Amino acid sequence: MTNKRKHAGPQGPPAKDGAVTAISPQALRRQAEARLLNTPAPMLADIDSLSQEEARKVLHELQVHQIELEMQNEELRDAHVALDFERARYFDLYDLAPVGYCTVSRQGQVIHANLTAASLLGTTRSELLGRRWSQFIHELDADRYYLQSRKLLGSGESQSCEFRMVRRDGRSLWVQWSATTSVNLEGETELREVFSDITARKVAEQALIESGENYHKLFTSIDEGFCIIEMVFDRQGNPVDYQFLQTNPSFEKQSGLLRATGKRIRELDPGMAERWCEIYGEVALTGEPVRMVDEPREPGGHWFDVHASRLGGPESRKVAIVSNDITERMQVEIRLREAKAVADKANRAKSEFLSNMSHELRTPLNAVLGFAQLIKSGSPSPTPVQERNVDYILKAGWYLLALVDEILDLAVIESGRPSLAMDSVSLDEVMRECQAMVEQQAQTRGIRMRFPVDPAPLPVHADRKRVKQVLNNLLSNAIKYNRPEGSVQVDWLVAEDGRVRISVTDTGQGLSADQIGQLFQPFNRLGKEAGREQGTGIGLMVSKLIVEMMGGAIGVQSTVGEGSVFWLELNPATGAPGNAVPAQDESARAMHGRVYAPLRKLLYVEDNPANLALVEAIIARRPDIRLLTATDGDAGILLARANLPDVILMDLNLPGIDGTQTMNVLAGDPATARIPVVALSADASADNIERGLQAGFFAYVTKPIKVDEFMDTLDKALAFDSAAAGRTTGKERP
């Protein structure tokens, strides 16, 4: 009979916060009557027993009650909607909260838990419920949790602390825990616990603690003096004082300022304030670090290497200062400079003496040799006995003259004042002259000489006289130290690096590795002093110095019992004699498929022959690098000044002055100061490596050599030299 239709509930939709608005009964009846007026009249039952007025009233009441029931049903449905809304919000706030929530009984069992709590503990909510909460507390922190929970139950006041919990997989995590109490419907006390994961924070805190401890240990134990100061400026912005914020024991020992922390420099040492305020103030204002050597203020004082840099941003006035006592090093350098001055003076005196001695010896030799030649060619001819005696005189005289020339030559070269007339030299012409000079010597000993037939006239950039001197020395040695009826083979070619290589191969007894290491040392004849062959033992040393001063290289390969190959390499000339560019030279390069760029020069200072041989073998793989060698520091300094190599490889344990002292001498010379020097040493201790780098070496390579790392270091040094010299890689150093 009733007309049911869907309509909005009397209380309207749920409020934004999910609450339902209540309506009074009077308002509900008025709304029902109003709705009845707008509703068509239903079919009524038989109302004959009632008067028309009574029936109308009954019908009206029934309709009103029906509408009230419908409205109450709608209100109930709206309440259910609101309740579902509240449940959903509860799920968001409770189950998906970023912290773990748990309800724990007084007996310690988990009654309720949200999803986050289960996730933090690495388990599921169903497995968590009903378990004892103490099972998840780390055994080392169980007492802390027990005391906190007892205090909570005893006082009723909320508690909080940090402790470790254990996940299901056994891993631990640090949590921030807080808890309150509540009473449930049965009147039982429960613990409402909240916890969050703070493991990352605790790890960071521990790392910070360890870092601080390490900093303190380093701060107090390092040999370098270290302090942090804060500058004080006047109203005009001028630095007038500074306060010590931190100082380490080494700083106090070096400066003599004891217990300086918290004090100002003017109250500790006004004189020091006048010296340093302006420097440190500039560092604080500009942020530009400063490094300088602080010289002693009085005799017997100390030198310090001081480095100052600003701490913090532009507004900071704090400056960190590191000082290192370099007194010993400076004293060594002073002694070294004094020793060098004395050595230079002695060397000049030696050169002058040898020069004078050469003149004094040549004068009588001129008479001896001149008159002996006159007697031999005079008329009447000398008797056979007289001619034999004259030959002895001439042979001894010429040998003595050659000896004087070699000694003087060595003195001139060692003094760094050789006279070189560099030009384009035709190698085949020089070789023909040398062949003519040694033919008689070879025939006398029965040695077969083989020279190239119709060789290409390869021009080299060299001093013609010096090239002939070196080639004569090599050819003469190949003949003297050959076996009877042996042979000497001469070859030359254009090497892969574009340079011209001349090789002299003999069939003598050969040389051992130890002998090769001593071969280019002056006055060392390798045990041949007692033999029948005359010699000074300085010819090869002179030859080596001459070749390297011309920008070339000299070396030897030898096999004991088979013979030796002495070789020298010279740079190709840019033009033939007469300034004409020979087609043969370009053709010779074309035969190798490319025109090679100028070489980079590497000087290796080393007295150990095995180490020299190793580096020579390594560098042989690099056609872009030419190796120069020296066996002691003095020779290395001489070669470096004469050749200006791109990189210097320095052994530290050298005879005479060691590698570090040699490097310091080179660093003090403007001509060689920018050349990077790489230390090479068998001492691989961290302290010595650090000391070597602090001393000024570009890099520190340890033995045994790792070839790849060695070549990488060498490439970096070459790149550094290119940048420092303001040129591209591969360009010749002038």
Automatic annotation (TrEMBL):
SMART domains listed in its UniProt record: HATPase_c (SM00387), HisKA (SM00388), PAC (SM00086), PAS (SM00091), REC (SM00448)
SUPFAM superfamilies linked: ATPase domain of HSP90 chaperone/DNA topoisomerase II/histidine kinase, CheY-like, Homodimeric domain of signal transducing histidine kinase, PYP-like sensor domain (PAS domain)
Protein EC: 2.7.13.3
Annotated InterPro entries: CheY-like_superfamily, HATPase_C_sf, HATPase_dom, His_kinase_dom, HisK_dim/P_dom, HisK_dim/P_sf, PAC, PAS
Location of 4-aspartylphosphate modifications: 651
UniProt domain Response regulatory: residue ranges: 601-718
Histidine kinase domain location: 356-574
CDD domains in UniProt: HisKA, PAS
Annotated region (Disordered), positions in chain: 1-20
Catalysis performed (reactions): ATP + protein L-histidine = ADP + protein N-phospho-L-histidine
Keyword Phosphoprotein among UniProt keywords: yes
Name of the top EC class for this enzyme: transferase
Origin superkingdom: Bacteria
Keywords: Kinase, Phosphoprotein, Transferase
NCBIfam families: sensory_box
PANTHER family attached to this UniProt entry: OSMOSENSING HISTIDINE PROTEIN KINASE SLN1, TWO-COMPONENT HISTIDINE PROTEIN KINASE
Official protein name in the record: histidine kinase
Lineage, opening ranks: Bacteria, Pseudomonadati, Pseudomonadota, Gammaproteobacteria, Lysobacterales
